[in-house]
Amino acid sequence: MILTVSDQDRVRTLVLNRPDALNAFNEALYDATADALLEAATDPQVAVVLLTGAGRAFSAGTDLLEMHRMATDPTFERGKHGFIGLVDALVDFPKPLVVAVNGIGLGIGATILGFADLAFIAADARLKCPFTSLGVAPEAASSYLFPALVGRQDAAWMLLSAEWVSAEEAREMGLVRQVCPADRLLDVAREHASLLARRPISSLVAVKRAMTEPHRAAIRDARDRENAAFAELMGGPANLEALSAFAEGREPDFTGLPPGW
Hints:
Layout: E1 3-8, E2 11-16, H1 27-42, E3 48-53, E4 57-59, H2 64-72, H3 82-92, E5 97-101, E6 104-106, H4 108-111, E7 118-122, E8 126-128, H5 142-150, H6 152-161, E9 165-166, H7 167-173, E10 178-180, H8 185-197, H9 201-212, H10 216-233, H11 237-248
Parallel strand pairs: 2-3, 3-5, 4-6, 5-7, 6-8, 7-10
Antiparallel strand pairs: 1-2, 8-9
Helix pairs in contact: 1-3, 2-11, 5-6, 5-10
């Protein structure tokens, strides 16, 4: 199974389970994760969702080999939800979402933290928003959520530079609540999730709604702007060079692109 689901003490744990692909999101994993969030949202026995990854990565972001096919193959069949459907499920998820970043987090593996109500990260984990190195735009409303979470300067660096951010830097920014020893990460995350899950679900939902409702319109507007920019840039000269370089196992060279790219 590409996503494992388990329940304990009103906490539903979702584990991204493509360890050989560093839990990169293909269309199937986007669909499975969106479906799991939609199911948890309406399940009266679930108070909290805890999300983590299997193996040495949290998530390497979108599966770039599949993205290359998507950008170049007009017959490629997209999933039921896809990336946009997962983001919609995250925007609308009404219960506390706890994220435990157990290893590297790239792309959606980093921007998903914008939707986390509590986030914990292993001390040896790292985060990267690789959008400019892929010739595309930001995603998952990160252009709105990250400045709100960490301030404009740190958000601009993460979104513009495509450089790695260490676990401690992520904590200093305010992107995560706590840095944990790798062997304690899940225990710490589960302790917090279980504490929340002992509270009335109705109160948890009310508190989260009160906190997020003022931002919903801005999040959706940011998502729409990002999706439009992403669609415009995907398959363009910079993106195709980045994806071709990835498929060929080399560094992209953007110096020969047409002016303006």
